[in-house]
Design goal:
Blueprint lengths: L1 H9 L4 H23 L4 H10 L1 H13 L10 H11 L9
Helix pairs in contact: 2-3, 2-4
């Protein structure tokens, strides 16, 4: 996320656009996992993503209105598990 922020700043991408792009990427990642784990197809994942657009816009506005000094890691344990999963002998996805 920090590299994405640095890249968007270097390219003079408006902050709101960068925040929305990051949120879109996070949602796309989660929907990609759902696609592999559940009985859901590409059309359903795109429909879900489209329905979430107003919510993403609201979350972006809330994030932009918040004081950046209050930012804290929200799921450090989940990130650690993801790092361990990458090197695990047995993985959830074959891709």
């Amino acid at each position: 996320m920090a590299a994405f922020g640095a890249a968007t700043a270097a390219l003079d991408v408006p902050v709101q656009t960068a925040v929305l792009a990051e949120l879109h990427g996070a949602c796309t990642t989660l929907l990609g996992a759902a696609l592999r784990l559940m009985r859901i197809d590409h059309q359903h994942t795109q429909a879900i993503l489209r329905r979430q657009a107003p919510r993403l816009a609201h979350v972006a506005q809330s994030a932009l209105a918040a004081d950046w000094r209050g930012l804290r890691p929200t799921a450090p344990f989940a990130e650690i598990l993801q790092m361990r999963h990458e090197a695990a002998h047995v993985r959830l996805f074959s891709s």
